[in-house]
Each structure stands twice: as structure tokens, then as C-alpha cells.
Design a protein that fits this description.
The protein has seven helices and eight strands, in the order βββαβααβαβαβαβα. The protein is of the alpha/beta class. It has a single domain, classed as Rossmann fold (3-Layer(aba) Sandwich), CATH 3.40.50. The radius of gyration is 16 Å and the shape is globular.
Length: 231
Amino acid sequence: MGQFIELKAADGFTFPAYVAQPTGKRRGGVVVLQEIFGVNAHIRAVTDGYAAAGYLAVAPATFHRSKPGVELGYTPDDMSAGQALKATVEALGMNPSAPGVLQDIQAAIHHAAQAGKVGVVGYCWGGLLTWRTACLLKGVSAAVPYYGGGVTTEAEIARTPKVPVLAHFGEKDHWIPLEGVAAFQKAHPEVEVHVYAANHGFNCDHRGAYDASAAALARERTLAFFARHVG
């Protein structure tokens, strides 16, 4: 079980992050980036899971600049609320030198780095932020976006990752068409891409899209990827 602590971004903004400590020797750090539902029970469980695998795991509250204390479920109303919060945070911009969510993620990376090299993993919107992190931020050794909404748009495909990236997609994901995944693969042959016979959100056991076999295989691949590049 982890606990919330306060982190401070470069612009002085303070925000909470859920931090889970590994037992025994630390293998490195992992920053876990939330979906559009906040650092809720599922994201905390995911973070605990990376700690159990030996990593100092940090899940920053990436909605905090828009609204503190967000913890949503997965109903249609929750999804609408999450989309609105995401739009508000995205409107702050994605310049790492300016106040915004990337500065918060950078602070989380800095905290995780006390354990050694740092990997970043994110889900849904967090997957998109993970891709941007791989392309724009410092102190990261590997990045794993899960079904990152927006990753396959022209603007995001145009970015260049600075670190090894492993990307997970679902072939039944109506938010991320396979044509976009193919375009992403063509533009980024250096990225390890896996497509599962599953829907958007297949890793989340709190929602109907959960696919246990796809989630288990993706986690196995993610942990192996982090073992190679993080420790």
C-alpha cells in the first residue's frame, strides 16, 4: 500500500502524487500516468503493482491544476467529467518550460529518480502523456503508453522519442482506429508496438472492457521492457 505525498513542479505549483515503495532492493523508478478518471482505486492498484515488481512507483495527480481531488469511476457521467477535465489541462499547453502538466510529470520523474533509472507508463490519456514525456522531458530511460488516445494523430506522430518506447494498442479500440496504429508504426519503426484482440481500456479490471489475457501479456511485456532499460 502506498500513500499520497506532495510534490513541487518547477513553477512552484504543488500537487499530490500516490507513491508506493518496493520491498527489498529498488530496481529503479516508474512513473504511472492516470487515465481521465484521476488517481483512483485502479491507478493506485497499478502503482502498487509496479512497487511489488521492485520499483519506486509514483502516480502524479495530473488533473490537479484543473481540479483537486479527482477520483472518478467509469460511468458515462464520469467519462464526460473526465473528458472535460482533460480538455482544461490540455488547454494549459504542452511546453515543458511553461506551467502545465508536463512540469508536474517532470517533478514526478525527479522524485522517482532517487531509486535509479526511471520508466514511465500511462493509460488512455496517460498513454498520450507518456508519449509526450518520451519526446519532450528529461530523466526518462523508457516509456510505455497503453492505448494512448491521440498518439496516432498527425501532430503526435510527428514527435520524436528520445528513449525506447513500447506501445500497446487494442484492435477493437474504436477510439484509436487500426489505420492510425499502422501510420504510427510506419513513422516509428524504432517503437516496439503490440496490438491485442481487445478494446480500449483492456488493462482496467474496473471496467467492462477489461481483458485479463491481454492485460497479463501486456504487463509481462512491460516488465520485461523495464527490466532491459530501467533495471
